[in-house]
Amino acid sequence: MLSSKEISMLIEATGTSVYMTLASTLMAYVIGLPIGILLVVCAPGGLKPKAVLYKILDFIVNITRSIPFLILMLLATPLARLVTGKSYGANATIISLTLAAAPFIARLVESSLLEVDKGVIEAAQSMGASIWQIVFKVLIGEARVSLIVGSTIALGTVLGYTGGGGLGDVAIRYGYSRWDTKILLATVVLLVILMQIIQIVGSRLSKKLDRRLTH
User: Between vectors from CA 108 to CA 53 and to CA 124, what angle results, nearest 5°?
Assistant: First the structure.
């Protein structure tokens, strides 16, 4: 059985993991969403093709996506130290997670927007809609379900890498390093529960939006 001190530690670590996951994913979308939109808009055959800008963004995303998530986080550590004054802890991990997740999210957004029926886009263009009206009202509107599914994937991926102060940190410091099996198992169970919550919420939200689109 877990002691009251261990339970309190796990509750605090769970809160930290949730905080890091939500904060870093939100910040990563602030960076990745515009990049994903620009990749679609500026692509050859896009709404406003810009070959140079597209190639630069595509190259940056490809390079960063080819680097393993964990290594990319480690490479971002100097920036995290510069911003937060530390290379460890929840806030430092959020900076690293944000930079590591942003290119992944850019690709998720790009993939979702490319799924939109070209006929819908052409219909909007024929009615005189501007590029940004098409982006926000047509592309994002039509791709909302896919975008929600993508955000669920992003949240799950980020949760899996929240180790600097959350449940992952507890699992390593107390479960693995001290060979405390009950702590290790408890952190695994809590991470699984959090992942299931993310999946359930994302699935229900996407189905709700999908029903709205079909009516």
Answer: 70
What tokens does 58 get? 């595509």
User: Which pLDDT value is given to residue 32?
Assistant: 95
pLDDT digits (tens, 9 = 90+) for 116-155: 888 888 898 888 888 888 998 899 988 889 999 999 999 9
Which class for 79: exposed (0-12), middle (13-18), buried (19 or more C-beta within 10 A)?
middle
Tokens encoding 174 = 């107390």
Q: Distance between CA atoms of 59 and 101, rounded to whole angstroms?
A: 16
**186, 139 contact by CB (below 8 A):** no
Alpha-carbon span 193 to 198, nearest angstrom:
9
Listed in sequence order, the residues at least 6 apart from 177 whose beta carbon sits closer than 8 Å to its beta carbon are none
Sequence-separated (6 or more) residues with CB below 8 Å from residue 33: 105, 106, 109
Within 10 angstroms of residue 209's Cβ, the number of other Cβ atoms is: 14
Give the mean pLDDT of 64-85: 81
The yes-or-no verdict on residue 211 having pLDDT over 70 is no
Size (the chain), residues: 215
Compute the distance between CA of residue 51 and CA of residue 130 in angstroms, rounded to an integer. 20
